């Protein structure tokens, strides 16, 4: 609506700066057209714009009203008074003052009321309080298509008796009803100012919630002009904030979070949220989502709803994963292959070939006894069951989330979210210098680039992203080289017989374990450094591409950040799972990386334990680092800011100034919160076959994450500008893509990373001891069959060990090859091809079964619950009856005078006069 009277800026940033510099050279004020200047509250006197008059603070620190105690504060603007200080750049600050005065005059022209108060703590700061009168609220509620109550919901679902019994049992896990009562349910309809009598208005003061009022206020602030240059108008609070005209703009918290306000009419919603949601003592309680949505808006509400639902679903996965871990822990001592490794008569007599050239020594298999036992905890048949379970779990999670999201969409009136066409971003408008014909409206509009220019911008963006992804891959290669060098060094030290001080460590620390732990720590540090650097690069690329709207901007940035972080966080895991130990050759002919470094091998039990170590370090380190950033840093910043701006103890600090001392919310809002959780979701699903405890760690982290995020936005940040949101946006298809990929990765981990398939092949086909004492098949002899024989005389001069402490002629290595002296010496044997065939068959069968199950579940589970569909139909019907059919009454009322000109026929019936009307009732 207001957009129609505002022209889009057609100046680039450089041109704007040049224009500002030219304005500094002149002394005269900007001349504003008289027809646009406000005449409200005496702001215009002739041709002079007068600034909003300052009012003294009334001494009520918890007040949410103007000094008159009647008009509610809907928004706060903060600026530094240039008249109180001597500035070197006098003309620059004079321009800021002109822009601010004109902007405030524009706000009042658009229906707002303003009152300014000087800061109590800092005389240089001025706080401008913004109030929206009833008529203005009604106008913009209609413009924004805000849905408001028309009738109480008469289709509320009836709970069964067992549900009431269950609610009594679960009552302690819900917020205290004396503080947070259940919201009344209403049928709603888009607000129409001319039909106010059909809406459920009990009290005008609370008909529009505080979040609605703040949202409408910000809508006006984003569109009010602050300067006219020729035929062009500049507008929007965001440009004024970026230019330093205002220091801050935010809606008010309604009270202190830890003290209930005694002011009359204060809802104390922040205090209630802190008591029953953000306080650590309430960690076990369900979230008051309706109050969160009411106070912070739908966008914040849908995030916490998703996070809470994800955490609840994780509880089921954590129970199954923990059971799988306990099963593996209990069976590690009874595992046949683990016993054979640790047995002095089996593993103690098997001499293994060196795993690096020259410096590495021969070693006994039983030296990996402890590592073999730990491997059995994670690599067992329970892991296969758990991997299949998680594939089903992730499908249920996404499908049930769609249902729950549909319920929230209906309850929160976002089912048909019909806000007017999203306006362009100021950064986009400032660079509109070309014209094109809009294919939809057919009207010429200005754009910042041609079709060719857009292709260039997108190409540069894609090229930059690919460069950084290649940089990540280069870091992975560097870490791989470190692994090879570190393994060489650890092998030389830990296998040394003459270093007695290392003797106690040999039983617990293997070269593979030492290399895995140190490499994982280095990988984590590299990941965090690249992550911080790329965040700035991704924002720069997205800004360079110039997306038109905020939604386009967030979607573009989301795709870039997730793609980068996917490679950054998961590449090392993919390397361990699918590359390490897969191309190592055999002792007589090893494979070298870069022609110099010999590829590292896995333990005799496989690389699964190293993948588990990598996952645990990255998941744990990331969770600890994020919580430090989210809890410690905002708290420290607020403490420092309060100490720097503290007023004397005798002065009461008003509500708006207390909020100014809090941290501002990031421009990207919840982007980083979603990104953190989606990366965690990838760890939980993509590699869960190697780490059953991943859901347990994620569950513990999320229980803290919910309360940390709640504590942060409730106590440490200014109140967020409420925004509408129908769903979780671009993150939904990303989650679905990760879920589909997870099936393939877990099947491949079980097939290629774990040792499960070779064991099963041996169990069913190649067992040397086919039956145990009671006629049952056993795994006896598996270790012997999984190790090939190598003649030490076949070592090349470059790879031959410098010393041979054992009186041996052969050594063993992990592979399935023919022994020396065989016609096919060192070639793959029949067992190898059987195992490969079994692995491929396993992947194909498991993937098809799981994908079919996922498809059936997706089809069977409807996205929208039946009860919600019925209520949606009922609401549409009422909207049609109450709002649209009133047009007939209005038509009847207008035509009634004409219809009164009637006469009676001879039979006594009424007949319409010949007045040119053809109406039938």
Automatic annotation (TrEMBL):
Pfam families in UniProt: Anoct_dimer, Anoctamin
Membrane topology reported for the UniProt record: Multi-pass membrane protein
TM annotation in the entry: 303-329, 381-401, 465-492, 512-534, 557-578, 677-700, 734-754, 830-852
A single GO cellular-component term on record: plasma membrane
Broad class of the protein's primary localization: membrane
UniProt keywords, alphabetically: Cell membrane, Glycoprotein, Membrane, Transmembrane, Transmembrane helix
A GO BP annotation: calcium activated phosphatidylserine scrambling
Subcellular location: Cell membrane; Membrane
Residue intervals of the Anoctamin dimerisation domain: 65-289
GO molecular function, one term: chloride channel activity
Residues covered by the Anoctamin transmembrane domain: 292-875
Lineage top rank: taxon: Eukaryota
InterPro entries reported for this sequence: Anoct_dimer, Anoctamin, Anoctamin_TM
Protein family (similarity comment): Belongs to the anoctamin family.
PANTHER family to which the protein is assigned, alphabetical: ANOCTAMIN, ANOCTAMIN-6
Protein name: Anoctamin
Species name: Hippocampus comes
């Amino acid at each position: 609506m207001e957009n129609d009277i505002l022209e889009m800026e057609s100046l680039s940033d450089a041109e704007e700066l040049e224009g500002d510099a030219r304005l500094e050279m002149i002394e005269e004020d900007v001349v504003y057209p008289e027809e646009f200047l406000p005449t409200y509250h005496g702001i215009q006197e002739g041709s002079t714009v007068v600034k909003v008059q300052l009012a003294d603070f009334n001494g009520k620190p918890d007040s949410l009203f103007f000094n008159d105690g009647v008009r509610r504060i809907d928004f706060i603007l903060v600026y530094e008074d240039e008249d109180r200080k001597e500035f070197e750049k006098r003309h620059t600050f004079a321009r800021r003052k002109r822009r601010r005065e004109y902007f405030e005059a524009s706000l009042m022209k658009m229906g707002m009321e303003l009152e300014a108060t000087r800061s109590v703590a800092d005389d240089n700061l001025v706080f401008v309080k913004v109030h929206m009168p009833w008529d203005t609220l009604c106008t913009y509620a209609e413009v924004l298509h805000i849905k408001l109550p028309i009738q109480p919901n008469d289709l509320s679902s009836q709970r069964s008796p067992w549900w009431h019994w269950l609610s009594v049992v679960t009552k302690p896990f819900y917020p205290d009803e004396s503080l947070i009562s259940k919201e009344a349910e209403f049928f709603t309809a888009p607000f129409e100012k001319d039909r106010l009598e059909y809406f459920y208005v009990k009290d005008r003061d609370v008909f529009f919630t505080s979040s609605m009022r703040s949202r409408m206020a910000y809508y006006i602030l984003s569109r009010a002009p602050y300067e006219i240059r020729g035929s062009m108008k500049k507008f929007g609070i965001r440009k004024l904030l970026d230019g330093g005209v205002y220091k801050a703009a935010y809606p008010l918290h309604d009270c202190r979070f830890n003290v209930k306000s005694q002011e009359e009419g204060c809802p104390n919603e922040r205090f209630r949220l802190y008591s029953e949601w953000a306080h650590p003592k309430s960690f076990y309680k369900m979230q008051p989502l309706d109050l969160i949505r009411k106070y912070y808006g739908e966008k914040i509400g849908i995030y916490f709803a998703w996070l809470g639902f994800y955490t609840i679903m994780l509880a089921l996965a954590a129970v199954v994963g923990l059971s799988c871990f306990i099963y593996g822990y209990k069976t590690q001592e009874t595992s046949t292959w683990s016993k054979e490794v640790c047995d002095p008569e089996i593993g103690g007599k098997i001499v293994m070939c060196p795993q690096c050239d020259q410096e590495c020594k021969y070693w006994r298999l039983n030296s990996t006894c402890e590592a073999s036992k730990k491997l059995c905890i994670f690599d067992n048949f329970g892991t296969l069951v758990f991997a299949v379970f998680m594939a089903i779990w992730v499908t249920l999670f996404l499908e049930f989330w769609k249902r729950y999201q549909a319920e929230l969409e209906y309850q929160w009136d976002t089912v048909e979210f019909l806000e007017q066409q999203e306006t362009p971003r100021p950064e986009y408008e400032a660079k509109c210098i070309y014209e094109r014909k809009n294919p939809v409206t057919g009207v010429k509009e200005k754009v910042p680039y041609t079709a060719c220019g857009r292709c260039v911008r997108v190409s540069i963006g894609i090229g930059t992203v690919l460069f950084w992804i290649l940089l990540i891959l280069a870091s992975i290669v560097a870490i791989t080289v470190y692994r090879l060098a570190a393994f060489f060094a650890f092998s030389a030290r830990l296998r040394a017989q003459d270093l007695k001080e290392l003797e106690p460590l040999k039983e617990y620390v293997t070269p593979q374990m030492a290399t895995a732990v140190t490499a994982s720590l280095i990988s984590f540090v590299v990941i965090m450094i690249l992550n911080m650097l790329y965040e700035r690069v991704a924002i720069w690329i997205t800004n360079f591409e110039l997306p038109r709207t905020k939604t386009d901007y967030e979607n573009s940035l989301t795709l870039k950040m997730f793609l980068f972080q996917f490679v950054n966080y998961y590449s090392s895991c993919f390397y361990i799972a699918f590359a390490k130990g897969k191309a190592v050759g055999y002792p007589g002919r090893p494979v070298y990386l870069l022609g110099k470094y010999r590829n590292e091998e896995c333990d005799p039990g496989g690389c699964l334990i190293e993948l588990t170590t990598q996952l645990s370090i990255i998941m744990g380190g990331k969770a600890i680092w994020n919580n430090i950033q989210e809890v410690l840093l905002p708290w420290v910043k607020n403490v420092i800011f309060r100490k720097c701006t503290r007023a004397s103890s005798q002065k009461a600090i008003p509500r708006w100034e207390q909020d100014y001392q809090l941290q501002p919310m990031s421009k990207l809002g919840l982007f980083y919160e979603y990104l953190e959780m989606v990366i965690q979701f990838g760890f939980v699903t993509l590699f869960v076959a190697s780490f059953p405890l991943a859901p347990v760690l994620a569950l513990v982290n999320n229980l803290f994450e919910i309360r940390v995020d709640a504590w942060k936005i409730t106590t440490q940040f200014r109140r967020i500008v409420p925004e509408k949101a129908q769903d979780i946006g671009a993150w939904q298809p990303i989650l679905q893509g990760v879920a589909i990929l997870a099936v393939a990765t877990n099947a491949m981990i079980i097939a290629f990373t774990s040792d499960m398939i070779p064991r099963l092949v041996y169990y069913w086909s190649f067992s040397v001891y086919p039956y145990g004492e009671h006629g049952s098949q056993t795994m006896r002899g598996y270790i012997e069959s999984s190790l090939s024989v190598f003649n030490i005389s076949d070592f090349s001069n470059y790879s031959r060990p410098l010393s041979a402490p054992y009186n041996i002629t052969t050594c063993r290595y992990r592979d399935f090859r023919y022994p020396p002296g065989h016609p096919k010496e060192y070639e793959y044997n029949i067992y190898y091809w059987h195992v490969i065939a079994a692995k491929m068959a396993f992947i194909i069968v498991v993937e098809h079964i799981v994908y079919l199950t996922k498809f059936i579940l997706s089809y069977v589970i409807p996205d929208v619950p039946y009860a919600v569909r019925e209520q949606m139909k009922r609401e549409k019907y009422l909207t049609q009856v109450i709002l649209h059919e009133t047009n007939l009454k209005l038509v009847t009322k207008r035509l009634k005078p004409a219809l009164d000109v009637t006469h009676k026929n001879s039979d006594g019936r009424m007949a319409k006069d010949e007045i040119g009307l053809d109406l039938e009732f």
